[in-house]
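Supplementary material to the annual report.
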Amino acid sequence: MQTMKRPYQVTAAVLLVLSAFVAIESLKLKYYTQLGPGPGFFPFWLALCLAALSIVMFYQATFRPAEPKPEDFRFSRRGILRALAMCAAWVWAVVMLERLGYRLTMAVFFPFLLLTLGRVRWPIVVALSLLGSLAVYYLFTRVLSVPLPIGPFDGIFGPIDALFY
Amino acid sequence: MDAFQHLMEGFAICLQWQYLLFAVLGCLAGTLIGVLPGVGPAAGTAMLLPLTFGMPPIGAIIMLSAIYYGSMYGGTITSVLVNVPGEAASAITCLDGYAMARKGRAGAALAIAAIGSFIGGNVATLGLVLLALPLTAVALKFGPPEFFSLMLVGLTLATTLASRSVVRALVSAALGLLLAMVGMDPVLGLPRFTFGQKDLLDGIGIVPLAMGLFGVGELLLTAEGSAAAVIRTKLRDMWPSWPEFKAAIMPIVRGTGIGFFLGLIPGVGVLVPTFIAYAVEKKVSKTPEKFGTGMIEGVAAPETANNAYCNAAMIPLFTLGVPGSAVIAILMSAFMMNGLIPGPFLFQEHPDIAWAVIASFYVGNLLLLVMNLPMIPLWVSFLRLSTPILYTLILAFCVIGAYSAHNSCFDVGLTLFFGFVGYAFKKLDIPLAPMILTVILGPLMERALRQSLEMSRGDFTIFFTRPISVVMIALAALFLATSLMKMASPIKEDRVV
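Predicted assembly:
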């Protein structure tokens, strides 16, 4: 039976490296001032606490009876492709939102996800893409006065924008 | 009774049709603001403030107050249905609310949240009417040492948010505290762990953190196939069962008390009472291991606490003119724009306005309940959408919410990062709630500790010479001791420490 021993050992090692990094960075800050703890005080001691917890986690994973690995711990190929599609869409949004503007970015975001995550009919893809890119844009910018990014090609929406002035 | 007479006069004013309309519009707008990600109650209230310029003073304040407590319920809707907190205070509701939705009990969760919010809000308003001045006097005794001790109590409760391993809960809590250190040092104003990134100078926002950990992380798990799909709810299952109602009674009572008490203290914020209410429920429960699997108590307590908090937070405003949070400060500006100065003189110079607004809190809480309960089937029907459409809409929802919090793509990227963290935590059975709790408490604690030590010129005994602080520290020590005893007890088959 597979156990969670290795995953927790790896997690503990990663946390130990993180706590060492935080401790080193904390020492570059002021540790104590005349009136009490400085900016480096708390992070330094937190890093030490995290290091202690990582050691306890490693000890428990190595020397105590390990928990069985859940059946769904490993992912299926199809599942990981779906998750990757979501990540790809998200990265597209991060990179292009302020370059292309909200409307054009989401005009790619919506159909990409709708077509990669499952079977959705074309009319629904088109309708949702229009709603998600245009309707949401006008809801936020015109009704709620929450600004969303505009891109260099947003001039193509001029006739629609004119309806809302 | 003088207060009772004034309250009746207040009802006579606020029940006029135009003020009822303002209350309805406020509740609707507030619910929508709560549902929409990234647009929190402070931003929503500020955005809608200009709409009230042409309104009579009573109408303006009634509407803005309704937006405030309406947004608390709105955030619950998305927390329960899709595990994405529409408003940061509803993050804790994701734990059991979404789990209830996965069991086909979304309607029951939303109904209990609405009922709990109604009860909590009305009890807090009753407190405003009857006990405002003496309670505010107690709350004003809270200085930095008491604040620190209170946060310490909250921190020790983090261990009660553990699922099967206290060590993993402490790891989550420690990581949350470290995340809270990112940004500007609260006392000296120096950048800390920003690595030259100007986007990190304000620290890590609670919106990308909560949305990433709960929403995106869960989506990645569901897409990959590790999380169960949501079960569609039948209409007859929309209402809580009688056992669920009974189970929710004491959590609602406790949530009311916690939210009310913490609402009196300026600066606590709405997130703290919701998390503390949840942690207390888990602590007192006979089946704490079931929290996170769809316990009605895990929905009732925090949802009651947040509305009790919202209404109780008005008490320092009305009695002393002290706004306890950003939203209350915006409400205060609404008062001042209408020529009214909140505080003790408001009751003497403009008693009709003061009591009409107070009476409107009762009316607004009732309207919220009456409007939202019939809409539950509509909200739950959202879950009937096909999986690709639902996931796409939720992801888009999260992108917009993450961006609109600070108009920053950095926050959108940060949300994805925390999505991966949430995904990894779920795989490794590391609870998320302690991290969120400590991210909120960390800065408050650090600021309070350092201010206390500045007051005492570095002398730590300040925490032990003030009575309220001593009581809080004793309580924290008790909670910590019980958690450590649990950690040291013999390992049971179904529990690994």
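Residues 76 and 90 of chain B are 5 Å apart (CA to CA).
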